[in-house]
Amino acid sequence: MNVLHSSVAPMRTAGPSTAAIAEASRPSISVIGLGYVGAVSMACLSHLGFRMVGVDVSAERVRTIKEGRSPIVEDRLGDLLGEGVQNGLVSATQNLVAAVLETDVTFMSVGTPTASDGGCDLKYVRQAARGIGLALAMKSAYHVVVLRCSVPPGTTLDVVVPEIEKASGRKLGKDFGVCFNPEFLREGVAVADFFAPPKTVIGASDARAEAVVSRIYTAIDEKLIFTSIAAAEMVKYVDNVWHATKVAFANEVGRLCKALDIDSHDVMNIFVKDLKLNLSPYYLKPGFAFGGSCLPKEVRAVAHIAEREGVELPLVASLMATNRCHIALAADMLRAHQGKRIGFLGLTFKANTDDLRESPTLDLMATLEAEGFEIAAYDPNLDFGPLLLSQIDYVRNAVPRQARLMDRLQAITLKDGHDLVERSDVLVVSHATDEFRRLVRGRGKHVHVVDLVRLFKDPPVEDTYQGIAW
Ligand SMILES: NC(=O)c1ccc[n+]([C@@H]2O[C@H](COP(=O)([O-])OP(=O)(O)OC[C@H]3O[C@@H](n4cnc5c(N)ncnc54)[C@H](O)[C@@H]3O)[C@@H](O)[C@H]2O)c1
After folding, report:
1. In the chain, how many domains are there?
2. Hey, which of 37, 124, 163, 180 would you mutate to test ligand 1's pocket, going by the most ligand atoms within 8 Å of its Cβ?
3. 427 near 445, Cβ under 8 Å?
4. How confident is the model at residue 9 (pLDDT cuts 50, 70, 90)?
5. Residues of the domain holding 328
6. How far apart (Å, rounded) are the C-alpha atoms in residues 253 and 266?
7. Residue at a domain's end among 233, 260, 276
8. What are phi and psi of 323, to 5 degrees?
Protein backbone atom coordinates (compact mmCIF):
# COMPACT_ATOMS: atom_id res chain seq x y z
CA MET A 1 0.00 0.00 0.00
CA ASN A 2 1.46 3.28 -1.07
CA VAL A 3 0.23 5.18 1.96
CA LEU A 4 3.29 7.20 2.84
CA HIS A 5 3.60 9.36 -0.21
CA SER A 6 0.10 10.57 0.30
CA SER A 7 0.22 11.16 4.02
CA VAL A 8 2.54 14.13 4.18
CA ALA A 9 0.11 16.92 3.39
CA PRO A 10 -0.53 18.87 6.59
CA MET A 11 -4.08 19.59 7.68
CA ARG A 12 -5.47 22.92 6.51
CA THR A 13 -8.82 24.51 7.21
CA ALA A 14 -10.72 26.91 5.00
CA GLY A 15 -12.40 29.93 6.55
CA PRO A 16 -15.36 31.86 5.19
CA SER A 17 -13.31 33.11 2.24
CA THR A 18 -13.80 29.74 0.57
CA ALA A 19 -17.44 30.60 0.21
CA ALA A 20 -16.33 32.89 -2.56
CA ILE A 21 -15.20 29.98 -4.70
CA ALA A 22 -18.33 28.11 -3.76
CA GLU A 23 -20.59 29.93 -6.03
CA ALA A 24 -20.76 30.23 -9.73
CA SER A 25 -21.26 26.83 -11.28
CA ARG A 26 -22.82 23.84 -9.62
CA PRO A 27 -21.41 20.55 -10.89
CA SER A 28 -23.86 17.74 -11.60
CA ILE A 29 -23.17 14.68 -9.47
CA SER A 30 -23.62 10.94 -9.96
CA VAL A 31 -23.83 8.77 -6.83
CA ILE A 32 -22.86 5.10 -7.09
CA GLY A 33 -24.49 3.02 -4.37
CA LEU A 34 -27.90 4.19 -3.12
CA GLY A 35 -27.80 2.80 0.41
CA TYR A 36 -27.71 4.71 3.68
CA VAL A 37 -24.91 7.03 2.56
CA GLY A 38 -25.70 7.42 -1.15
CA ALA A 39 -29.43 8.02 -0.81
CA VAL A 40 -28.90 10.69 1.84
CA SER A 41 -26.25 12.45 -0.30
CA MET A 42 -28.62 12.37 -3.28
CA ALA A 43 -31.51 13.83 -1.34
CA CYS A 44 -29.60 16.51 0.54
CA LEU A 45 -27.47 17.72 -2.37
CA SER A 46 -30.56 17.95 -4.60
CA HIS A 47 -32.15 20.07 -1.87
CA LEU A 48 -29.16 22.40 -2.23
CA GLY A 49 -29.81 22.65 -5.97
CA PHE A 50 -27.39 20.07 -7.39
CA ARG A 51 -28.56 17.81 -10.21
CA MET A 52 -28.12 14.25 -8.95
CA VAL A 53 -28.04 10.95 -10.84
CA GLY A 54 -28.16 7.88 -8.61
CA VAL A 55 -26.80 4.48 -9.64
CA ASP A 56 -27.35 1.12 -8.04
CA VAL A 57 -27.15 -2.50 -9.14
CA SER A 58 -30.42 -3.06 -7.29
CA ALA A 59 -33.38 -2.47 -9.59
CA GLU A 60 -35.59 -2.09 -6.52
CA ARG A 61 -33.48 0.75 -5.06
CA VAL A 62 -33.37 2.54 -8.41
CA ARG A 63 -37.15 2.21 -8.84
CA THR A 64 -37.83 3.48 -5.32
CA ILE A 65 -35.67 6.56 -5.82
CA LYS A 66 -37.16 7.27 -9.23
CA GLU A 67 -40.57 7.25 -7.58
CA GLY A 68 -39.31 9.83 -5.10
CA ARG A 69 -39.48 7.43 -2.15
CA SER A 70 -36.84 6.52 0.38
CA PRO A 71 -35.21 3.08 -0.02
CA ILE A 72 -34.45 3.04 3.73
CA VAL A 73 -35.95 4.21 7.01
CA GLU A 74 -34.41 7.63 7.58
CA ASP A 75 -36.07 10.79 8.89
CA ARG A 76 -36.98 13.35 6.16
CA LEU A 77 -35.27 11.31 3.42
CA GLY A 78 -38.50 10.45 1.57
CA ASP A 79 -39.63 14.10 1.62
CA LEU A 80 -36.35 15.35 0.16
CA LEU A 81 -36.19 12.63 -2.51
CA GLY A 82 -39.81 13.34 -3.46
CA GLU A 83 -38.98 17.05 -3.74
CA GLY A 84 -35.91 16.26 -5.87
CA VAL A 85 -37.81 14.01 -8.28
CA GLN A 86 -40.58 16.57 -8.61
CA ASN A 87 -38.28 19.44 -9.45
CA GLY A 88 -36.24 17.30 -11.86
CA LEU A 89 -33.01 17.29 -9.84
CA VAL A 90 -33.11 13.61 -8.83
CA SER A 91 -32.96 10.69 -11.24
CA ALA A 92 -31.71 7.13 -10.89
CA THR A 93 -30.47 4.35 -13.15
CA GLN A 94 -28.76 0.96 -13.12
CA ASN A 95 -26.49 2.19 -15.92
CA LEU A 96 -23.32 3.35 -14.17
CA VAL A 97 -21.50 4.37 -17.36
CA ALA A 98 -24.37 6.56 -18.54
CA ALA A 99 -24.63 8.24 -15.13
CA VAL A 100 -20.92 9.09 -15.03
CA LEU A 101 -20.99 10.34 -18.61
CA GLU A 102 -23.75 12.83 -17.93
CA THR A 103 -22.21 14.27 -14.73
CA ASP A 104 -19.09 16.20 -13.69
CA VAL A 105 -18.46 14.53 -10.36
CA THR A 106 -19.03 10.94 -9.15
CA PHE A 107 -19.54 10.07 -5.50
CA MET A 108 -18.85 6.42 -4.70
CA SER A 109 -20.75 5.05 -1.71
CA VAL A 110 -20.91 1.30 -2.32
CA GLY A 111 -20.65 -1.12 0.58
CA THR A 112 -17.30 -2.19 2.05
CA PRO A 113 -18.24 -5.22 4.17
CA THR A 114 -15.96 -7.32 6.32
CA ALA A 115 -14.05 -9.92 4.25
CA SER A 116 -13.70 -13.55 5.36
CA ASP A 117 -10.23 -12.78 6.78
CA GLY A 118 -11.60 -9.90 8.90
CA GLY A 119 -10.23 -7.23 6.56
CA CYS A 120 -12.21 -4.91 4.32
CA ASP A 121 -13.80 -6.44 1.21
CA LEU A 122 -13.15 -4.05 -1.66
CA LYS A 123 -14.94 -6.00 -4.39
CA TYR A 124 -17.77 -3.46 -4.79
CA VAL A 125 -15.27 -0.59 -4.75
CA ARG A 126 -13.21 -2.28 -7.48
CA GLN A 127 -16.32 -3.00 -9.58
CA ALA A 128 -17.54 0.58 -9.29
CA ALA A 129 -14.06 1.96 -10.08
CA ARG A 130 -13.86 -0.19 -13.21
CA GLY A 131 -17.28 1.09 -14.27
CA ILE A 132 -16.16 4.68 -13.76
CA GLY A 133 -13.07 3.91 -15.84
CA LEU A 134 -15.18 2.55 -18.71
CA ALA A 135 -17.16 5.79 -18.69
CA LEU A 136 -14.09 8.01 -18.52
CA ALA A 137 -12.68 6.22 -21.58
CA MET A 138 -15.59 7.77 -23.47
CA LYS A 139 -15.36 11.19 -21.85
CA SER A 140 -12.91 13.94 -22.71
CA ALA A 141 -13.92 16.47 -20.05
CA TYR A 142 -12.20 16.47 -16.64
CA HIS A 143 -14.06 14.40 -14.05
CA VAL A 144 -13.73 14.17 -10.27
CA VAL A 145 -14.26 10.88 -8.43
CA VAL A 146 -15.05 11.21 -4.72
CA LEU A 147 -14.73 8.11 -2.56
CA ARG A 148 -17.17 8.20 0.37
CA CYS A 149 -16.93 4.55 1.47
CA SER A 150 -14.99 3.66 4.60
CA VAL A 151 -11.83 1.93 3.36
CA PRO A 152 -8.33 1.04 4.61
CA PRO A 153 -5.80 3.87 4.16
CA GLY A 154 -4.20 3.61 0.73
CA THR A 155 -7.32 2.31 -1.06
CA THR A 156 -8.11 5.48 -3.01
CA LEU A 157 -4.67 5.89 -4.56
CA ASP A 158 -3.58 2.27 -4.69
CA VAL A 159 -6.81 0.49 -5.63
CA VAL A 160 -9.37 2.94 -7.02
CA VAL A 161 -7.03 5.06 -9.15
CA PRO A 162 -5.25 2.09 -10.83
CA GLU A 163 -8.63 0.46 -11.59
CA ILE A 164 -9.91 3.68 -13.19
CA GLU A 165 -6.68 4.29 -15.12
CA LYS A 166 -6.57 0.70 -16.38
CA ALA A 167 -10.19 0.68 -17.53
CA SER A 168 -10.10 4.18 -19.02
CA GLY A 169 -6.58 4.69 -20.31
CA ARG A 170 -6.89 8.13 -18.64
CA LYS A 171 -4.35 9.69 -16.26
CA LEU A 172 -4.90 10.94 -12.74
CA GLY A 173 -4.29 14.69 -12.53
CA LYS A 174 -4.63 15.32 -16.25
CA ASP A 175 -7.96 13.67 -17.11
CA PHE A 176 -9.51 13.12 -13.74
CA GLY A 177 -8.99 13.88 -10.06
CA VAL A 178 -9.85 11.89 -6.96
CA CYS A 179 -10.85 12.88 -3.45
CA PHE A 180 -11.49 10.94 -0.30
CA ASN A 181 -14.33 12.59 1.56
CA PRO A 182 -15.39 10.49 4.56
CA GLU A 183 -19.00 10.26 5.63
CA PHE A 184 -19.71 11.08 9.30
CA LEU A 185 -23.52 10.91 9.37
CA ARG A 186 -25.40 8.96 12.03
CA GLU A 187 -28.19 6.72 10.79
CA GLY A 188 -31.56 7.96 12.05
CA VAL A 189 -30.52 11.62 12.01
CA ALA A 190 -28.48 11.47 8.80
CA VAL A 191 -30.35 14.25 6.99
CA ALA A 192 -30.00 16.63 9.94
CA ASP A 193 -26.31 15.67 10.26
CA PHE A 194 -25.77 16.28 6.53
CA PHE A 195 -26.87 19.90 6.86
CA ALA A 196 -24.95 20.37 10.15
CA PRO A 197 -21.98 17.98 9.85
CA PRO A 198 -19.60 17.40 12.77
CA LYS A 199 -16.84 18.15 10.25
CA THR A 200 -16.14 17.97 6.52
CA VAL A 201 -12.82 16.42 5.55
CA ILE A 202 -11.40 16.43 2.05
CA GLY A 203 -8.25 14.64 0.92
CA ALA A 204 -7.58 15.49 -2.72
CA SER A 205 -5.20 14.25 -5.40
CA ASP A 206 -4.64 17.84 -6.60
CA ALA A 207 -5.84 21.43 -6.21
CA ARG A 208 -8.32 21.21 -9.08
CA ALA A 209 -10.16 18.22 -7.61
CA GLU A 210 -10.05 19.85 -4.17
CA ALA A 211 -11.64 23.05 -5.52
CA VAL A 212 -14.46 21.15 -7.23
CA VAL A 213 -15.38 19.24 -4.06
CA SER A 214 -14.97 22.33 -1.84
CA ARG A 215 -17.51 24.10 -4.01
CA ILE A 216 -20.05 21.38 -3.28
CA TYR A 217 -19.66 21.62 0.49
CA THR A 218 -19.19 25.32 1.23
CA ALA A 219 -22.96 25.79 1.33
CA ILE A 220 -23.19 23.59 4.43
CA ASP A 221 -19.76 23.89 6.05
CA GLU A 222 -17.52 26.95 5.84
CA LYS A 223 -14.68 25.35 7.78
CA LEU A 224 -13.67 22.55 5.46
CA ILE A 225 -10.69 20.49 6.61
CA PHE A 226 -8.15 19.64 3.91
CA THR A 227 -5.62 16.89 4.39
CA SER A 228 -3.90 14.09 2.49
CA ILE A 229 -6.02 11.30 1.01
CA ALA A 230 -4.48 8.71 3.37
CA ALA A 231 -5.13 10.89 6.44
CA ALA A 232 -8.75 11.42 5.34
CA GLU A 233 -9.16 7.65 4.94
CA MET A 234 -7.60 7.06 8.36
CA VAL A 235 -9.71 9.71 10.12
CA LYS A 236 -12.88 7.78 9.31
CA TYR A 237 -11.52 4.56 10.83
CA VAL A 238 -10.09 6.37 13.86
CA ASP A 239 -13.41 8.13 14.48
CA ASN A 240 -15.34 4.89 14.49
CA VAL A 241 -12.79 3.05 16.63
CA TRP A 242 -13.00 5.96 19.07
CA HIS A 243 -16.78 5.85 19.16
CA ALA A 244 -16.63 2.10 19.75
CA THR A 245 -14.09 2.73 22.52
CA LYS A 246 -16.42 5.24 24.16
CA VAL A 247 -19.35 2.82 24.10
CA ALA A 248 -17.24 -0.06 25.42
CA PHE A 249 -15.76 2.17 28.14
CA ALA A 250 -19.14 3.47 29.27
CA ASN A 251 -20.50 -0.07 29.39
CA GLU A 252 -17.52 -1.27 31.45
CA VAL A 253 -18.17 1.60 33.88
CA GLY A 254 -21.82 0.52 33.94
CA ARG A 255 -21.02 -3.13 34.69
CA LEU A 256 -18.66 -2.21 37.52
CA CYS A 257 -21.01 0.39 39.00
CA LYS A 258 -23.90 -2.07 38.98
CA ALA A 259 -21.82 -4.65 40.84
CA LEU A 260 -20.97 -1.98 43.41
CA ASP A 261 -24.59 -0.75 43.64
CA ILE A 262 -23.66 2.72 42.35
CA ASP A 263 -25.81 4.42 39.71
CA SER A 264 -23.64 4.42 36.57
CA HIS A 265 -25.63 7.28 35.08
CA ASP A 266 -24.90 9.46 38.12
CA VAL A 267 -21.21 8.71 37.64
CA MET A 268 -21.13 9.29 33.88
CA ASN A 269 -23.31 12.41 34.08
CA ILE A 270 -20.59 13.91 36.26
CA PHE A 271 -17.84 12.45 34.06
CA VAL A 272 -19.19 14.13 30.90
CA LYS A 273 -19.41 17.52 32.64
CA ASP A 274 -15.61 17.67 32.66
CA LEU A 275 -14.82 19.27 29.33
CA LYS A 276 -11.27 20.12 30.37
CA LEU A 277 -9.79 16.66 30.85
CA ASN A 278 -12.47 14.07 30.00
CA LEU A 279 -14.21 15.25 26.84
CA SER A 280 -11.51 17.36 25.27
CA PRO A 281 -8.39 17.06 23.09
CA TYR A 282 -6.38 16.47 26.29
CA TYR A 283 -4.68 13.04 26.44
CA LEU A 284 -5.55 12.38 22.80
CA LYS A 285 -2.32 13.13 20.96
CA PRO A 286 0.16 10.28 20.43
CA GLY A 287 3.18 10.66 22.68
CA PHE A 288 4.90 8.56 25.34
CA ALA A 289 3.38 6.07 27.77
CA PHE A 290 1.30 7.21 30.74
CA GLY A 291 2.87 7.15 34.19
CA GLY A 292 3.02 9.14 37.42
CA SER A 293 1.55 8.56 40.82
CA CYS A 294 -2.11 8.30 39.74
CA LEU A 295 -2.94 6.74 36.37
CA PRO A 296 -1.17 3.36 36.62
CA LYS A 297 -2.10 3.00 40.29
CA GLU A 298 -5.77 3.70 39.70
CA VAL A 299 -6.01 1.53 36.60
CA ARG A 300 -4.62 -1.35 38.66
CA ALA A 301 -7.02 -0.57 41.51
CA VAL A 302 -10.09 -0.58 39.25
CA ALA A 303 -8.97 -3.82 37.57
CA HIS A 304 -8.54 -5.30 41.04
CA ILE A 305 -12.03 -4.28 42.19
CA ALA A 306 -13.52 -5.74 39.00
CA GLU A 307 -11.75 -9.02 39.57
CA ARG A 308 -12.92 -9.14 43.17
CA GLU A 309 -16.50 -8.52 42.03
CA GLY A 310 -16.26 -11.05 39.21
CA VAL A 311 -16.91 -8.35 36.60
CA GLU A 312 -15.10 -8.65 33.27
CA LEU A 313 -13.54 -5.37 32.09
CA PRO A 314 -11.30 -6.30 29.13
CA LEU A 315 -10.81 -2.68 28.06
CA VAL A 316 -9.57 -1.53 31.48
CA ALA A 317 -7.55 -4.73 31.85
CA SER A 318 -5.74 -4.02 28.57
CA LEU A 319 -4.55 -0.52 29.51
CA MET A 320 -1.37 -1.49 31.36
CA ALA A 321 -0.50 -3.95 28.56
CA THR A 322 -0.83 -1.34 25.82
CA ASN A 323 1.24 1.06 27.93
CA ARG A 324 3.99 -1.55 28.29
CA CYS A 325 3.92 -2.05 24.49
CA HIS A 326 4.67 1.63 24.02
CA ILE A 327 7.65 1.55 26.39
CA ALA A 328 8.88 -1.63 24.66
CA LEU A 329 8.64 0.14 21.30
CA ALA A 330 10.87 2.98 22.59
CA ALA A 331 13.38 0.40 23.83
CA ASP A 332 13.40 -1.27 20.39
CA MET A 333 14.02 2.08 18.69
CA LEU A 334 17.02 2.62 20.97
CA ARG A 335 18.38 -0.91 20.53
CA ALA A 336 19.09 0.15 16.96
CA HIS A 337 21.72 2.46 18.53
CA GLN A 338 23.61 -0.31 20.37
CA GLY A 339 27.03 0.83 21.57
CA LYS A 340 26.14 4.54 21.43
CA ARG A 341 25.87 6.94 24.36
CA ILE A 342 22.18 7.59 25.13
CA GLY A 343 21.22 10.90 26.77
CA PHE A 344 17.75 11.32 28.29
CA LEU A 345 16.22 14.80 28.27
CA GLY A 346 13.56 14.56 30.96
CA LEU A 347 13.27 11.90 33.67
CA THR A 348 10.10 12.68 35.56
CA PHE A 349 6.81 11.24 34.31
CA LYS A 350 5.91 14.55 32.65
CA ALA A 351 7.30 18.07 32.28
CA ASN A 352 7.19 20.62 35.11
CA THR A 353 7.08 18.17 38.00
CA ASP A 354 9.78 16.50 40.08
CA ASP A 355 7.63 13.38 40.54
CA LEU A 356 9.59 10.30 39.54
CA ARG A 357 6.96 7.74 40.55
CA GLU A 358 6.10 5.29 37.75
CA SER A 359 7.89 7.46 35.21
CA PRO A 360 7.91 5.45 31.94
CA THR A 361 11.24 7.07 31.12
CA LEU A 362 12.80 5.43 34.20
CA ASP A 363 11.39 2.12 33.02
CA LEU A 364 12.99 2.63 29.62
CA MET A 365 16.31 3.68 31.18
CA ALA A 366 16.32 0.65 33.49
CA THR A 367 15.74 -1.68 30.53
CA LEU A 368 18.60 -0.17 28.53
CA GLU A 369 20.94 -0.03 31.50
CA ALA A 370 20.32 -3.73 32.20
CA GLU A 371 21.29 -4.40 28.57
CA GLY A 372 24.61 -2.58 29.00
CA PHE A 373 23.83 0.75 27.31
CA GLU A 374 25.80 3.78 28.45
CA ILE A 375 23.13 6.19 29.69
CA ALA A 376 23.06 9.68 31.16
CA ALA A 377 20.29 12.21 31.78
CA TYR A 378 19.31 15.81 32.41
CA ASP A 379 16.10 17.10 33.98
CA PRO A 380 15.77 20.73 35.14
CA ASN A 381 13.08 19.69 37.65
CA LEU A 382 15.41 17.52 39.69
CA ASP A 383 17.33 18.87 42.67
CA PHE A 384 18.96 16.00 44.50
CA GLY A 385 18.02 17.29 47.97
CA PRO A 386 16.50 15.27 50.83
CA LEU A 387 12.99 15.22 49.30
CA LEU A 388 14.12 13.82 45.99
CA LEU A 389 16.47 11.35 47.68
CA SER A 390 13.59 10.00 49.73
CA GLN A 391 11.52 9.66 46.53
CA ILE A 392 14.40 7.76 44.92
CA ASP A 393 14.42 5.49 47.96
CA TYR A 394 10.72 4.91 47.50
CA VAL A 395 11.14 3.95 43.83
CA ARG A 396 14.12 1.71 44.72
CA ASN A 397 11.87 -0.28 47.06
CA ALA A 398 8.62 -0.13 45.09
CA VAL A 399 10.08 -1.08 41.71
CA PRO A 400 12.87 -3.65 42.13
CA ARG A 401 13.70 -3.61 38.40
CA GLN A 402 14.62 0.07 38.77
CA ALA A 403 16.67 -0.40 41.96
CA ARG A 404 20.08 -0.40 40.25
CA LEU A 405 19.13 2.66 38.22
CA MET A 406 18.05 4.45 41.41
CA ASP A 407 21.44 3.68 42.99
CA ARG A 408 23.16 5.46 40.10
CA LEU A 409 20.57 8.11 39.22
CA GLN A 410 22.34 11.04 40.87
CA ALA A 411 25.70 10.05 39.36
CA ILE A 412 24.40 9.82 35.78
CA THR A 413 22.21 12.94 35.95
CA LEU A 414 24.08 16.02 34.67
CA LYS A 415 23.41 19.52 35.96
CA ASP A 416 23.59 21.14 32.53
CA GLY A 417 21.57 20.16 29.46
CA HIS A 418 24.31 21.32 27.10
CA ASP A 419 26.75 18.91 28.78
CA LEU A 420 24.36 16.04 28.17
CA VAL A 421 23.93 16.97 24.52
CA GLU A 422 27.74 17.22 24.13
CA ARG A 423 28.24 13.78 25.64
CA SER A 424 25.46 11.94 23.79
CA ASP A 425 25.21 10.16 20.45
CA VAL A 426 21.44 9.76 20.82
CA LEU A 427 19.04 12.07 22.66
CA VAL A 428 15.77 10.68 24.01
CA VAL A 429 13.28 13.45 24.66
CA SER A 430 10.39 12.86 27.05
CA HIS A 431 9.27 16.42 27.92
CA ALA A 432 8.03 18.87 25.29
CA THR A 433 9.61 22.05 26.69
CA ASP A 434 11.19 25.09 25.03
CA GLU A 435 14.49 24.31 26.74
CA PHE A 436 14.58 20.83 25.17
CA ARG A 437 13.54 22.20 21.78
CA ARG A 438 16.51 24.57 21.92
CA LEU A 439 18.88 21.79 22.97
CA VAL A 440 17.67 19.49 20.20
CA ARG A 441 17.90 22.24 17.57
CA GLY A 442 21.43 23.15 18.71
CA ARG A 443 22.80 19.57 18.77
CA GLY A 444 25.66 18.43 16.55
CA LYS A 445 24.61 17.11 13.17
CA HIS A 446 25.68 13.55 14.05
CA VAL A 447 23.52 13.37 17.18
CA HIS A 448 20.34 11.30 16.73
CA VAL A 449 17.04 12.17 18.37
CA VAL A 450 14.34 9.77 19.52
CA ASP A 451 11.38 12.03 20.21
CA LEU A 452 8.79 10.52 22.57
CA VAL A 453 6.63 13.64 22.88
CA ARG A 454 6.37 15.32 19.45
CA LEU A 455 8.68 18.20 20.36
CA PHE A 456 7.85 20.09 17.16
CA LYS A 457 4.46 20.60 15.48
CA ASP A 458 6.14 19.78 12.18
CA PRO A 459 8.73 17.12 13.00
CA PRO A 460 12.11 17.68 11.33
CA VAL A 461 12.62 15.64 8.17
CA GLU A 462 16.13 14.49 9.03
CA ASP A 463 17.80 11.06 8.92
CA THR A 464 18.82 11.58 12.54
CA TYR A 465 15.31 12.33 13.83
CA GLN A 466 12.70 9.70 14.76
CA GLY A 467 9.34 10.14 16.46
CA ILE A 468 7.86 7.29 18.47
CA ALA A 469 4.42 7.41 16.83
CA TRP A 470 4.58 9.83 13.88
N1 LIG B 1 -24.30 3.47 6.99
C2 LIG B 1 -23.68 4.48 7.52
O3 LIG B 1 -24.18 5.15 8.42
C4 LIG B 1 -22.31 4.86 7.06
C5 LIG B 1 -21.73 6.01 7.59
C6 LIG B 1 -20.48 6.41 7.13
C7 LIG B 1 -19.83 5.63 6.16
N8 LIG B 1 -20.40 4.50 5.69
C9 LIG B 1 -19.69 3.78 4.66
O10 LIG B 1 -20.27 4.13 3.41
C11 LIG B 1 -20.28 3.00 2.53
C12 LIG B 1 -21.70 2.68 2.13
O13 LIG B 1 -22.43 2.34 3.28
P14 LIG B 1 -24.00 2.12 3.24
O15 LIG B 1 -24.42 1.86 4.64
O16 LIG B 1 -24.65 3.23 2.48
O17 LIG B 1 -24.07 0.78 2.37
P18 LIG B 1 -25.36 0.05 1.80
O19 LIG B 1 -25.04 -1.39 1.78
O20 LIG B 1 -26.59 0.54 2.47
O21 LIG B 1 -25.42 0.58 0.31
C22 LIG B 1 -24.49 0.25 -0.67
C23 LIG B 1 -25.22 0.23 -1.99
O24 LIG B 1 -24.24 0.08 -3.01
C25 LIG B 1 -24.83 -0.72 -4.04
N26 LIG B 1 -23.76 -1.21 -4.91
C27 LIG B 1 -22.82 -2.13 -4.63
N28 LIG B 1 -22.01 -2.29 -5.68
C29 LIG B 1 -22.45 -1.46 -6.65
C30 LIG B 1 -22.01 -1.15 -7.95
N31 LIG B 1 -20.95 -1.74 -8.50
N32 LIG B 1 -22.69 -0.24 -8.66
C33 LIG B 1 -23.76 0.37 -8.13
N34 LIG B 1 -24.22 0.13 -6.88
C35 LIG B 1 -23.56 -0.76 -6.15
C36 LIG B 1 -25.61 -1.77 -3.28
O37 LIG B 1 -26.61 -2.38 -4.09
C38 LIG B 1 -26.21 -0.94 -2.15
O39 LIG B 1 -27.48 -0.42 -2.47
C40 LIG B 1 -19.57 1.88 3.31
O41 LIG B 1 -18.21 1.90 3.01
C42 LIG B 1 -19.81 2.27 4.74
O43 LIG B 1 -18.80 1.73 5.59
C44 LIG B 1 -21.65 4.11 6.10
Report:
1. 2
2. 37
3. no
4. low
5. 323-467
6. 11
7. 233
8. -65, -40
35 lines ligand 1 (CB under 6 A): yes
Q: Which of 195, 215, 233 is the last residue of a domain?
A: 233
Find the length of the chain: 470
pLDDT in tens, 378-389: 999 999 999 999
Mean local confidence (pLDDT), 280-288:
97
Tell me the per-residue pLDDT of 166-194, one tens digit each, with 9 for 90 and over.
999 999 999 999 999 999 999 999 999 99
- In terms of domains, do 336 and 221 share one? no
Between the CA of 170 and the centroid of ligand 1 the distance, in Å, is 26
Ligand 1 midpoint to CA 112 (Å): 7
Minimum-distance ligand 1 atom for the alpha carbon of 112? 41
Distance CA 116, CA 277 (A): 40
Exposure string over 45-63, b if 16+ CB within 10 A, otherwise e: bbbeebbbbbbbbeeebbe
| pTM for this model (two decimals) | 0.92
Q: Is 294 a catalytic residue?
A: yes
- Ligand 1 mean position, distance from CA 138 (Å): 26
Mutate to test the pocket of ligand 1, among 70, 145, 183, 243 (most ligand atoms within 8 A of CB): 183
**DSSP structure string for 112-137:** -PBPTTSSB--HHHHHHHHHHHHHHH
pLDDT at 10: 63
Protein residue with least CA distance to atom 41, ligand 1: 149
Alpha carbon of 140 to ligand 1 centroid (Å): 28
Residue 11 has a pLDDT of 75
DSSP conformational letter for 159:
I
DSSP notation for 343-389: EEE--SSSTT----TT-HHHHHHHHHHHTT-EEEEE-TT---SHHHH
pLDDT at 25: 73
Q: What is the pLDDT of residues 431-441, one digit of tens each?
A: 999 999 999 99
Ligand 1 test: best mutation among 56, 193, 199, most atoms within 8 Å of CB? 56
The Cα–Cα gap between 163 and 174 comes to 16
